Amino acid sequence: MRVAIGGATGLLGTALSRSLTSAGHDVVRLVRGTPQTSDQRRWDPDAGRISGPGLDDVDAVVNLAGTPIAGGRWTKDRKAAIRRSRTTSTLTIVTSLAPDGRCQRLLNASAIGFYGNTGPEIVDEDSPAGRGFLARVVQDWEAAASHSPVATATLRTGHVLAADGGYLAAQWKLFAAGLGGRVGDGRQFLSWISLADHVRAMEFLLTSELTGPVNLVGPRPVTNAEFTRTFGDYLNRPTLVPMPLPAVSLLFGRDFVREALLAGQRVAPRRLIDAGFEFEHNTLAEALNALS
């Protein structure tokens, strides 16, 4: 199989590229700068262009492009960039595909932010959209993907656990120094997935007939308090000091704290499990221990 990947230099894109290549597949990495290797192809999502043959010579596309949510303070411009980077990259992909072309499969990134703050309620792919900035961004993101002329699955991704990026990246040093702690009252749910399982799920979906939203989260979400305790145990460090939310608000803004830290999603991967996917890491402890 020949697969084009948007966002190929990010955490998920790098891991997927490596796994597909190891399995003998050809990978075309879409990059914004000048291509440095034969497997790279330039694209400009802001202009809606992909160089060379575009996507005419691939069997499937996985689009993972998007400005990081936690990459800086949520200013008006930052919020606009978060939204624009997702919708423009998606529209560039879908307008480059033909209904009768070689490529007949698209996996487009999405996020469980779609559901908003769900509290203790368990939600799945049939649950309605929530409220707030992130929920609106994800709705716009998936609306852009809905214009795809080929079979498309939107990957509603939870917090990805990896040793070198993802959800743990900003917290590792704090927890390792004994400064990690719960956020707020710690009751908000965190729906996580190991990097290995996320990659395996994407590979599973490349050959699956599933279309529409698919929750890419592990089967056992935890509360923030449970996560804090388990991560502290993994690092053998105390977790007694709650996160200083006023300081975080100064760095990232109150909207970020409210939607990205205090809001919780208790999400079930119903469609993935129903399709026959089996998780390698079912518990948070298993996922963390696999990082070593």
Quick tags:
292 residues; alpha/beta; Rossmann fold; 8-stranded mixed sheet; 3-stranded mixed sheet; 20% strand
Brief rundown of the structure:
This protein is 35% helix and 20% strand.
Fold and architecture overview:
With 292 residues, the chain is of the alpha/beta class. It has a single domain (2-289), classed as 3-Layer(aba) Sandwich (Rossmann fold). The protein contains 10 helices and 15 strands. It has helices at 11-22, 76-95, 133-145, 172-176, 195-206, 224-235, 245-252, 254-262, 270-274, 284-289; strands spanning 2-6, 26-31, 40-44, 49-50, 60-63, 105-111, 122-123, 151-157, 159-162, 165-166, 189-190, 192-194, 212-216, 222-223, 266-267. The longest helix has 20 residues, at 76-95.
How many structural domains?
Answer: 1
The tally of helices reads 10
Order of helices and strands: EHEEEEHEEHEEEHEEHEEHHHEHH
Instruction: Name the assembly state.
Output: single chain
Q: Which overall shape is indicated by the principal axes computed on the Cα atoms?
A: globular
Q: Approximately how much beta-strand content do the residues carry?
A: 15-25%
CATH architecture title: 3-Layer(aba) Sandwich
Ranges where pLDDT stays below 50 over 5 or more residues in a row are none
The percent of residues in helical segments reads 25-40%
SS elements, strand count: 15
Strands across the major sheet, in which order? 4-3-2-1-5-6-8-13
Distance between the termini: 32 Å
Overall radius of gyration: 19 Å
Named CATH topology: Rossmann fold
